[in-house]
């Protein structure tokens, strides 16, 4: 899981690993790439932690049709980390569809967006000027056509507004 409080903690022993009281989120899926952390330039009092779920470490991973997700979680402000009595999960966040947005406001804890079936987020997201950019790798299920397709997404941190200027909410790269 992810820990809160100014970035990833680097415990030296297993007994010093963070407990649930120090975690930002618990998502029940593998996180195999680093999170991105940024201040929202449209709301400078907000610090966001963004990460995706997924893994492509074995043939079984490539054959999986499990839905993986990008999470964008508000974690306090520039100098003050958020405090969470329990880790946030999907039920605490707003679901965003490919064509939707999230409600903006002080009570907003964040948003998430599910990827297409089999889509894995295995490269860290990138944040620039308040826009999070990420890719989902979608392995081919056809044994006669190995490889993968990718989809690229770009969303505003706070509102999840689509920033890809074509008429589609993602760009496929094949």
What is the topology?
Layout lengths: L1 E2 L19 E3 L10 E4 L7 E6 L6 H5 L5 E6 L19 E2 L14 E5 L11 E3 L2 E9 L8 E9 L14 E3 L1
Parallel strand pairs: 6-7
Antiparallel strand pairs: 1-2, 3-4, 4-5, 5-7, 8-9, 9-10, 10-11
Describe the structure.
- The chain is mainly β.
- Helix content is 3%, strand content 30%.
- It has a 5-stranded mixed β-sheet with strand order 3-4-5-7-6, with no helix packed on it. The chain has a 4-stranded antiparallel β-sheet with strand order 8-9-10-11, with no helix packed on it. A two-stranded antiparallel sheet has the order 1-2.
- A hairpin with a 2-residue loop joins β8 (126-128) and β9.
- It is globular.
- Mean pLDDT is 79; it is low at 1-21.
């Amino acid at each position: 899981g992810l820990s809160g409080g100014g970035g990833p903690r680097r415990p030296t022993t297993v007994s010093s690993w963070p407990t649930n009281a120090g975690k930002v989120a618990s998502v029940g899926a593998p996180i195999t790439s680093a999170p991105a952390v940024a201040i929202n330039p449209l709301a400078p009092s907000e610090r966001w932690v963004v990460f995706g779920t997924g893994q492509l470490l074995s043939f079984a991973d490539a054959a999986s049709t499990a839905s993986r997700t990008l999470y964008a979680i508000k974690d306090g402000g520039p100098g003050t980390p958020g405090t969470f009595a329990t880790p946030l999960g999907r039920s605490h966040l707003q679901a965003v569809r490919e064509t939707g947005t999230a409600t903006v406001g002080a009570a907003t804890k964040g948003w998430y967006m599910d990827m297409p079936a089999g889509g894995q987020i295995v490269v860290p997201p990138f944040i620039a000027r308040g826009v999070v950019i990420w890719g989902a790798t979608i392995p081919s299920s056809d044994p006669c056509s190995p490889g993968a397709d990718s989809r690229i997404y770009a969303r505003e941190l706070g509102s999840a507004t689509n920033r890809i200027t074509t008429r589609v909410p993602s760009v496929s790269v094949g």
